[in-house]
Structures are given as structure tokens and as C-alpha cells.
Design the sequence.
């Protein structure tokens, strides 16, 4: 899931397709005027399944951009001729290639550009836009062997990042500026190469609150889901780091402690503390440029007694789809992205959904209306969110509407460009 744009000057990096980026018109149509396909997922990213084989024991790094900067790194994998490495990475739907960097000597490297192939059959219905990337000897010419120890270097490293943006009025509609809560996230997962658990196996979470444009947001929540192997449970976890420590009034904590057979639910609390001097908003107005606050915490595997089951749960948690961010309001309502279920801490979804004055909820997809409107999205990092009371469709006209109404087939990289637009804001 990712988004944005408006008139005149292009800044940001080039992209690799030839899609049309015409200047926006002066239309004042808003988001509620959109005719949204019923199967539109609102996703600005997709899962790409990896299959990696190598001629020698070494390490490959996978990037979304040709420059191979740290910011575009999505995976770092120990590889070798004796096994096939399988995993998945989350990448923007707009890109068709990934870049594989590998050592060719003690101080030299090479970069291979590899095309993402479309997966013939999705593993699950939620992954209907999956891709597939095969990396083998042909993409790793001249690879140098390196020694991989028995410690942390044996772990696979996966990175998912982006912004989550919310409207806080669910189950009713409001201004659709999607800035009621804007948070940047980076989740780095270290998982074992084999079906065992190591003490180094962990998940590191970093969240930066970029904007609060609503009065309802109380907490930002995060839960890790799973597939057929099941979710990561508290009994699989040896320790947490960084919880219950205040940073500029923000605190990350475990919301449901002492429940070994339940998935951990994390809250980032203290959002109100970021609003200084009685301010209604935080960084959503043109001249509002407050310092940003970042929260970091870690989830570590058991140091002893690791199991195949535990390892699989940590692997599942590294998949971007299984990282469920949600907003908790002061009225105790949870607001999730399209299709995600409420947590056990919120049991009133059906009751509250029926109270809507504006919409009828979809019978098939939670947190989505019968016309497929939503209250939350995942978008790219460094997202230029709309200013206060500026409808997201107006802020990024006409490309946002074209992306939505084409079911994501047009202008799927609209967020790569930043227009000089008085209706959007960059907070970096």
C-alpha cells in the first residue's frame, strides 16, 4: 500500500516505465466521488517471492533502486550452493526490476539487474499481485566466496518500510485528507536459515510519528499475523527491548502481557503529548514544522528451547502483509486497513460499524464500505501527506483518481513524483 502529487515541477528520482504524468486539472472533485472497483485493494506495494541459489558461499543484498543505497535495501541473505534460499520482499507495485549486489573480491562488488516475473498463482487471495524473482548463477557471475560464521551472519535480513496513513472518523466519512495519523515505519527481521531458532533471531521495529491531523487518534497499534503456520505468539518470544521507555512523551508497550498463547499487540501511546501549547494539529499545517519523534523496540526469540514452530512464526512475521498497523481512537475503536480484522482487544466492530451515518460496511472486507472506501493505507516512505482539510484526491489530482478508478493498472507510481503543490507537505 503508497500515494501522491500536483502541478508543475517534478522532483524525486526517475522511474523505469513510460507512464503518463500529466499536470493536474483544476477539478475540485473529492474522494467520495470516486467510482472504485470492488476488487481494488488500495495496495501500493506487492509481495515478491524470492528463490536464490549461488555458486559459492557468500552474501547477496537486494535493493529496489539501481543506486543500491541503504534506504532501498530490502534483503540481505547468506547464500550457498548447498541450499536454495526462499523468502519474500515487499516492493512498490510500480517497479519491474530489483538489483542484486554481491562481492566479487575482497573490496569489489557487482550489481545485477533482475526482472520481477508475475506469479502464475497466488499463494493466498490477499496476494493477488504477487511477483517472483529467481536469482541464480547467471545473475551472480564472478561471485567471490566469503566465510559465514555460526552467529548472527547466518541470519536472513528482511526490511519492510513505508508510511501508514489514517482517517480517524470510522465508521463515518470526514475530510479524506488522510493525515489524521501519519507514521513512518521500518521493520527489520532477522530469521534463521534453517528450521531452528537462534538467540540472535529477532524483529526490530522503528516508528516515527510524522503528523496528527485529527482529535481522535489515541494510540498506534501493531500486531504480527501469520498464515497456515500461525501467528507469532508470546510464548515464542524470549525478551522485548525498548518497551515502556518514554521518548518525548511517546511510549511503546505490550498491550496484552502475560498471554503466552496470544499474539503480542503493541501500542505506541502518548500521541497527545506531541501537540504542544494546546495545538489541535501536529505537523499538518503549512507552517507547522515540529521535530519528529521516533520509537524503537525489539522482539527477540527464546535463547534456549528454540523450535521449528517458533522459527516459522518469526519468518511469517517478516512478511509485510502480516504486519498489521492500526489506529486506536479515544473512543476505544480500532481502525485497520482494508481486510484486516479487529484485535481481541476490540470486540465491538459489528456494533460500531452499524452506527455509521454515511456508509454501509462491506460484508466481505472489514474496514471497507460496500463501495470500497477505506480509512487507512500503507504508502511509500517520505510520503508527502495532504495538508489539513485538503482531500487526498484534490492534493494529487488527477493521478490519484486515475490510479484508483483503473483498479491500480494506471499511474501506479504516482507517488514517485512530488509536485510543487500547496496542498501537500513534506516533513523532512
Sequence:
Amino acid at each position: 500500500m503508497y500515494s501522491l502529487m500536483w502541478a508543475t515541477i517534478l522532483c524525486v528520482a526517475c522511474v523505469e516505465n513510460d507512464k503518463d504524468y500529466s499536470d493536474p486539472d483544476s477539478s475540485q472533485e473529492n474522494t467520495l466521488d470516486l467510482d472504485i472497483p470492488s476488487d481494488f485493494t488500495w495496495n501500493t506495494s506487492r509481495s515478491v517471492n524470492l528463490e536464490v541459489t549461488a555458486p559459492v558461499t557468500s552474501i547477496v543484498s537486494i535493493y529496489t533502486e539501481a543506486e543500491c543505497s541503504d534506504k532501498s535495501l530490502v534483503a540481505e541473505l547468506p547464500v550457498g550452493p548447498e541450499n536454495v534460499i526462499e523468502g519474500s520482499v515487499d516492493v512498490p507495485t510500480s517497479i519491474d526490476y530489483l538489483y542484486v549486489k554481491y562481492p566479487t573480491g575482497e573490496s569489489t562488488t557487482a550489481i545485477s539487474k533482475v526482472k520481477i516475473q508475475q506469479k502464475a498463482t497466488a499463494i493466498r487471495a490477499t496476494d493477488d499481485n504477487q511477483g517472483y524473482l529467481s536469482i541464480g548463477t547467471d545473475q551472480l557471475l564472478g561471485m567471490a566466496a566469503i566465510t559465514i560464521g555460526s552467529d548472527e551472519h547466518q541470519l536472513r535480513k528482511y526490511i519492510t518500510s513505508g508510511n501508514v496513513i489514517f482517517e480517524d472518523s470510522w465508521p463515518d466519512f470526514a475530510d479524506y485528507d488522510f493525515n489524521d495519523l501519519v507514521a513512518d515505519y521500518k521493520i527489520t527481521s532477522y530469521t534463521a536459515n534453517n528450521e531452528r531458532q537462534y538467540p540472535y533471531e529477532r524483529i526490530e521495529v522503528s516508528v516515527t510519528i510524522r503528523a496528527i491531523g485529527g482529535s481522535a487518534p489515541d494510540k498506534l497499534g501493531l500486531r504480527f499475523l501469520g498464515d497456515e503456520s500461525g501467528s507469532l505468539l508470546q510464548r515464542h518470544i524470549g525478551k522485548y527491548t525498548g518497551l515502556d521507555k518514554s521518548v518525548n512523551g511517546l511510549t511503546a508497550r505490550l498491550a496484552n502481557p502475560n498471554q503466552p498463547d496470544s499474539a503480542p499487540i503493541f501500542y505506541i501511546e502518548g500521541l497527545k503529548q506531541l501537540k504542544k501549547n494546546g495545538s489541535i494539529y501536529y505537523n499538518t499545517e503549512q507552517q507547522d514544522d515540529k521535530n519528529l519523534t521516533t520509537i524503537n523496540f525489539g522482539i527477540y526469540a527464546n535463547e534456549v528451547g528454540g523450535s521449528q514452530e517458533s522459527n516459522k512464526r518469526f519468518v511469517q512475521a517478516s512478511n509485510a502483509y502480516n504486519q498489521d498497523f492500526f489506529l486506536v481512537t479515544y473512543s476505544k475503536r480500532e481502525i485497520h486497513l482494508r481486510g484486516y480484522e479487529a484485535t481481541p482487544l476490540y470486540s465491538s466492530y459489528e456494533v460500531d460499524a452499524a452506527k455509521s451515518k454515511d456508509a454501509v460496511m462491506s460484508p466481505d472486507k472489514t474496514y471497507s464500505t460496500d463501495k470500497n472506501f477505506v480509512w487507512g493505507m500503507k504508502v511509500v516512505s517520505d510520503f508527502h501527506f495532504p495538508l489539513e482539510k485538503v482531500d487526498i484526491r484534490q492534493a494529487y489530482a488527477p493521478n490519484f483518481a486515475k490510479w484508483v478508478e483503473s483498479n491500480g493498472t494506471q499511474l501506479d507510481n504516482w507517488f514517485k513524483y512530488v509536485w510543487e503543490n500547496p496542498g501537500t507537505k513534506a516533513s523532512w
